[in-house]
Design brief:
Cyt_P450_sf, monooxygenase, Cytochrome p450, heme, binds protoporphyrin IX containing FE, three-stranded antiparallel beta sheet, iron ion binding, globular, mainly alpha
Length: 395
């Protein structure tokens, strides 16, 4: 593992890419980058309304489990973004979600066997679940193909390439996107219930922004800098993937500083350590302080919340350029960086704009817990998951 102090060197290592995967990446990037980005900002409010109706019933009996709630939101937003509206009325969506999460829980365990453990009955049960998931994904793809207006990611309308079978690609995106987005949503919710002052701040910001726009989308997302700063600070303190890995199979890598990484060596970048290192982030590196991502419009840094929104509704701060923050790697870096980054940020920010605009999120009284970062389903989360409630705001 490489030391986290040398961030530029770590970044350099992440640049290397296999020529082979470049084409596949580019085509996926194209699909995720245009029409889908628009959908990611439009859908969350509708989804939230629908999920909150059901949440009211659960809340009548007590609080809502933050982890479960976040998982359901992430899964639904991603499903509706990738498959279109058809996903929201698909009667098997709940079964699909359950299967996906069950497989995600067991996948690392079974993958850890060097030899396929065909002698174990549990393994065949796991295989059975994987086959069921594949069948359901194919069923959904076929529904999208039949419904040409579904506007799904794989554009099943127009010229259909029947040779192209997107099932594997879609399932991987559903796994990775649902788990990582759920972890980030749960992380943000936990920060909001433990920092009510910051929650109030973004509520004011959202109200101001709503005066000039209906809701934040990829065009106007910069109008909610505090909200974005909370999303980024949550991702800094608890990156869903705590490690990045690179491996050059054939050639040694000669770095500018003279270091040689031998072929086939696996280079591991400890993202969580890099993002919590005080030499990069200052003395309060381990504290939740979204203001570190903001600067005043006159370029001065903001260290606390004072005067960052004015009474007149004019913003006095902006989000810092993320490119300049070398030690910020929640979505990876270089040629293999996450291609769903924009989609995740726009989708999650629109979701929280709708959520905090209408509700105050609180901890269920008497259920105060002290969550700690722990691995869960291959992603880092704050556990135990707090019980939360939503209180409708009067304005
Ligand atoms: C909060 C949400 C997300 C987080 C934190 C996240 C994080 C990451 C990270 C750390 C990587 C590895 C990057 C590297 O090695 O440099 C990655 C790769 C990837 N992500 Fe995400 N991701 C998120 C959401 C999404 C979504 C919503 C999608 C698409 C629907 C997506 C698609 C991908 C793909 C396709 C790759 C592989 C890129 C490649 O190997 O070339 N991600 N993501």
């Amino acid at each position: 593992m490489l030391p986290e102090e040398d961030v530029p060197l770590l970044r350099l290592l992440l640049i290397f890419v296999h020529g082979k995967v470049e084409h596949q990446r580019k085509s996926l990037e194209l699909k995720l980058g245009s029409k889908l980005l628009e959908r990611a900002s439009l859908i969350p409010a509708e989804i939230l309304n629908c999920i909150m109706e059901r949440a009211q019933t659960v809340m009548a009996k007590g609080g809502i489990d933050c982890e479960m709630f976040s998982q359901h939101l992430a899964f639904t937003i991603l499903g509706a973004t990738l498959f279109g509206d058809i996903f929201l009325t698909w009667p098997k969506a709940n079964v699909y979600e359950e299967l996906l999460m069950k497989i995600a829980k067991d996948a690392c365990f079974w993958a850890s066997y060097g030899v396929t453990p065909f002698w174990k009955q549990e393994f065949w049960r796991y295989q059975d679940l994987c086959t069921k998931l594949k069948c359901l994904t194919l069923e959904l793809i076929n529904e999208c193909r039949q419904n040409r207006k579904s506007e799904s990611l794989w554009d099943f309308g127009g010229d259909i390439d029947m040779e192209y079978e997107p099932c594997g690609e879609i399932t991987s995106l559903m796994f990775h996107g649902s788990l990582t987005m759920a972890a980030l949503i749960a992380n943000i919710l936990t920060r909001l219930v433990t920092h009510l002052d910051i929650q109030d701040k973004i509520h004011s910001e959202i109200l101001l922004a709503q005066k000039v726009m209906r809701r934040p989308d990829q065009e106007n997302i910069a109008m909610v800098p505090h909200l974005l700063a909370i999303v980024y600070e949550s991702a800094r303190l608890l990156p869903a993937g705590p490690l990045l890995q690179r491996c050059s199979l054939r050639h040694d890598l000669n770095l500018k500083n003279g270091m040689v990484i031998p072929a086939a060596a696996i280079v591991v970048v400890p993202v969580q350590l890099v993002q919590m290192d005080s030499s990069n982030w200052g003395k309060d590196a381990s504290k939740f302080n979204p203001y570190r991502f903001l600067s005043r419009t006159d370029d001065r840094c903001i260290s606390d919340q004072k005067e960052s929104l004015t009474d007149t509704g004019l913003y006095t701060c902006v989000l810092k350029e993320l490119k300049e923050l070398e030690a910020f790697l929640p979505f990876g870096s270089g040629s293999r960086a996450c291609i769903g980054e924009k989609l995740a940020i726009v989708g999650i920010s629109s979701l929280f704009a709708a959520l905090v605009g209408t509700y105050e999120v609180r901890l269920l009284p008497g259920c105060e817990s002290n969550p700690k970062p722990m691995m869960n389903n291959c992603v880092l989360q704050l556990l135990p998951s707090p019980k939360i409630i939503f209180v409708k705001r009067s304005s």
